[in-house]
Amino acid sequence: MKVVVFYATREGHTRHIAEHIADDLKTQKVEIDVYDVKTLLEPIDWSVYATACVAASVHLGHHEPEMIAFAKRHRNELEQLDAAFVSVTLSQAGAQDSHRSAAERQAAAADVQRMVDVFVHETGWQPVHVLSVAGALAYSQYNFVVRFVMKRIARQQGAPTDTSRDYVFTDWQRLDQFVNDLVDGARGRVGR
């Protein structure tokens, strides 16, 4: 069985997530291709894949523009493969933070869902499998202006504001389970 992972990233954390997904797939004896949609040269031979996974980060309430264009252009192929979507957003960190009030977690979860809904609206692709994972505060990778803005947002959200280091909030075990479920589903479809 062969699976393809497409990703779009700005600071590189979504690439790490895509590589983690690929490593999970390899441990399950799945052949894997991984492509950054920003540098992807077409055409894609979709017929060789049992399923696909699409991962994109959120910035200012929207997923990476190159992923929006890619998913819009390849909506039919993604639907035929029963492809999965992994949305990488810091809002998910707020939704899963047990130190926050129930109302704060609920507001963050609503924001996460809103961003997925915007992606679906912008692309026309309604993925069957969706997972939102918390991203990272990559202060060391931001320019001065972005670092300033992200620190202000982090302060408002109760996230770390020490810009001398980076913070990763991704729940890797939750991602691993999602990948396992995706592989099980793809094997079931291939077996039919």
Helix content: 40-55%
N→C terminal distance: 13 Å
Characterize the main sheet: 6 strands, mixed
Shape: globular
Supply the helix-strand structural class.
Answer: alpha/beta
Q: Any idea how many domains? A: 2
What's the helix count?
7
Radius of gyration: 17 Å
How is the CATH topology of the largest domain named?
Rossmann fold
By CATH, the superfamily of the largest domain comes out as: Flavodoxin domain
Q: What is the overall pLDDT average? A: 91
Poorly predicted runs: none
Instruction: Give the strand tally.
Output: 8
- The ordered string of helix (H) and strand (E) elements is EHEEEHHEHHEEHEH
Task: Write structural notes for this entry.
The protein is α/β, with parallel strands linked by helices and 192 residues long. The protein has two domains: 2-135 and 170-191, Rossmann fold, CATH 3.40.50; 139-168, no CATH class. It is built from seven helices and eight strands; from the N terminus they run βαβββααβααββαβα. The strands form two sheets. Strands 1, 2, 3, 4, 5 and 6 form a six-stranded mixed sheet that branches. Strands 7-8 form a two-stranded antiparallel ribbon. Strand 3 (51-59) and strand 4 (62-63) form a beta hairpin. The radius of gyration is 17 Å and the shape is globular. It starts with a strand and ends with a helix.
